[in-house]
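tokens incoming
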């Protein structure tokens, strides 16, 4: 069975038994008229052959001959289109341009993973159904990845034919003039951003800058220098809280200094990127018109002051040669206002429910919006991503993207409340988005999970994804409520419903969930020998997360019963020790300490009973 992700559009399999063999002397030859820019993708294939087959094949330029892997370009194909033609005497990749060649190579890499050196005769004709196929990664609300892990992410995105990456920035960049904002953090540097931009370009990935420029400016608006620009006075004096950071800290649009501040940020950040796009964000401006700008909102309307401020940022970006993007949650309530923004502007229409409706997509299309639909990998606020919910959400949003003529899909990976989940756990959801935005024919949940288990994790049982998908379902005390219970007790927020959740805890449900977790952990260990050795470390990450889910389940019951008989505090602190090691494998220190603060609060609470 030929397993490919994304599924190719047209596959013609040749006569059974007819094969092409990639021997150790089989050269990779690319057409003489191609520039040496193509060398990067040739090296990508050469390295993959070395890693999979154990030998290095030569690369050269020349004409098509028998016994070669021959790479060429045809003007009859679109830029990202490719044909992969495997005959008994030659393997031929024809791309419409650099991107098409790269994608043909990515498909060939998957076939080598499937069949090794002896490949079946086949003709594959393939192309994307969606122009923009993106992944959005939060590098602000807890985790700031290392440059190496960002490059590894780019490699993985390209392998599944994603062509856009955005990194969400609030304060996690080393701004030259805003040291107050990042001084207690481990921010990304200009050099790292520029190096990543160059790296992504070789992989046909457009690294699009994305920065909070309206709402969600917690650390900026808590500084001595910029607190006066916050919509709600005295916000900077409040103690830190995850809820507070998520739901407040919007710029005061009535203060002219606010726009000057935004422009200073954009002027410094924008030149680091080669992309023609810029995401100004502009989402969840919860406090707008409720504080310092209330008089202006009363005069012209809250909706109008929102549109006016976004319009000013868009105009600035357009003058700088950029196409603006912004999140569509606010304007979805009054979609006709899209006509008040420059026509180039792209609306990023998000929605994360498993049963997400098409209401906003339909209304924005009818209003004339140029939109990209944005589903999510559903990993935020939990130790393990809810893959079943992610599948349903991504499937629906991709379907709506085709139905309502969206120009793309941007699959999101947020880090709300400290980004507690391991970044690798979002890979399954990322692949869903890659597959469904490339090919509008969406496979079943079971089918694609088997394909991912085999192609991504090299699991011969093809059960890996179905096992880890069940982990999140055993969560009885989610991270959202773990944080909520703590902050409620500290009088930082209103009721999350966390206290009621603990009051209603059922011992039988906890025991059953933890029994299931024990079984799932055993299954993970059992399939280790069936996985590629390079993928095996991920089993440890999932086991640590599963142990965490089980531990927090027990803690919720102990809090309800004020149980002093167990060693939960000690076990929690040991668990956090393992969690920290895992965090540091892919991320800078960033806000790991905030996770620690939650852990220690609970350890002390348990000891107080």
């Amino acid at each position: 069975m030929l397993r490919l992700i994304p599924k190719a559009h047209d596959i013609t399999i040749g006569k059974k038994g007819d094969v092409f063999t990639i021997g150790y002397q089989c050269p990779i030859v690319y057409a003489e008229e191609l520039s040496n820019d193509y060398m990067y993708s040739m090296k990508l294939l050469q390295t993959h052959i070395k890693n999979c087959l154990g030998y290095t094949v030569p690369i050269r330029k020349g004409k098509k001959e028998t016994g070669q892997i021959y790479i060429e370009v045809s003007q009859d194909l679109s830029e990202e289109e490719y044909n992969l033609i495997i005959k008994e005497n030659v393997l031929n990749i024809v791309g419409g341009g650099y991107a098409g060649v790269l994608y043909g190579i990515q498909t060939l890499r998957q076939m080598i993973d499937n069949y090794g050196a002896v490949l079946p005769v086949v003709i594959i004709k393939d192309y994307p159904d969606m122009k923009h196929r993106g992944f959005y990664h939060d590098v602000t609300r807890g985790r700031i990845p290392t440059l190496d892990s960002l490059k590894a992410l780019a490699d993985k995105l390209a392998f599944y034919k994603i062509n856009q990456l955005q990194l969400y920035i609030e304060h996690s960049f080393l701004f030259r003039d805003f040291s107050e904002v990042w001084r207690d953090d481990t921010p990304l540097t200009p050099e790292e951003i520029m190096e990543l931009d160059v790296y992504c370009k070789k992989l046909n990935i457009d690294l699009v800058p994305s920065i909070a420029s309206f709402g969600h400016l917690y650390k900026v608006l808590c500084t001595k220098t910029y607190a006066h620009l916050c919509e709600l006075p005295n916000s900077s004096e409040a103690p830190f809280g995850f809820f507070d950071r998520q739901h407040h800290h919007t710029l005061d649009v009535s203060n002219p200094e606010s726009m000057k501040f935004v422009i200073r940020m954009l002027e410094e950040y924008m030149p680091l990127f080669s992309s023609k796009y810029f995401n100004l964000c502009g989402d969840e401006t919860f406090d707008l018109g409720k504080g310092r700008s209330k008089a202006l909102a009363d005069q012209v309307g809250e909706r109008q002051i929102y549109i006016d401020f976004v319009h000013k940022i868009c105009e600035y970006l357009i003058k700088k040669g950029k196409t603006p993007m912004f999140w569509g949650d606010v304007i979805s309530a009054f979609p006709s206002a899209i006509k008040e923004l420059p026509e180039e502007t792209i609306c990023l229409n998000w929605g994360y429910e498993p049963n997400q409706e098409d209401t906003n997509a339909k209304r924005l299309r009818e209003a004339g919006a140029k939109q990209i639909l944005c589903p999510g990998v559903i990993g935020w606020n939990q130790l393990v991503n809810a893959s079943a919910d992610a599948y349903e959400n991504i499937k629906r949003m991709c379907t709506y993207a085709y139905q309502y003529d969206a120009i793309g899909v941007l699959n999101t990976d947020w880090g709300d409340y400290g980004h507690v989940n391991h970044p690798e756990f979002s890979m399954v959801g990322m692949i869903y988005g890659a597959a469904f935005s490339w090919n509008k024919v969406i496979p079943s949940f079971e089918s694609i999970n088997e394909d991912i288990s085999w192609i991504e994790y090299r699991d011969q049982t093809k059960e890996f994804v179905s096992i880890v998908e069940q982990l999140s379902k055993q969560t009885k005390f989610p991270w959202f409520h773990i944080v909520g219970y703590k902050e409620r007790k500290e009088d930082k927020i209103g009721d999350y419903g966390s206290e009621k959740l603990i009051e209603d805890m059922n011992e039988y449900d906890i025991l059953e969930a933890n029994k299931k977790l024990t079984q799932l952990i055993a299954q993970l260990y059992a399939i280790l020998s069936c996985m590629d050795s390079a993928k095996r470390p991920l089993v440890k990450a999932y086991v640590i997360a599963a142990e965490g889910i089980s531990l927090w389940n027990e803690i919720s019951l102990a809090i309800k019963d004020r149980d002093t008989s167990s060693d939960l505090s000690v076990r929690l602190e040991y668990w956090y020790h393992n969690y920290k090691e895992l965090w540091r494998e892919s991320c800078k220190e960033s806000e790991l300490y905030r996770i620690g603060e939650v852990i220690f609060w609970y350890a002390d609470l348990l000891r107080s009973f």
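note: The CA atoms of residues 162 and 434 lie 6 Å apart.
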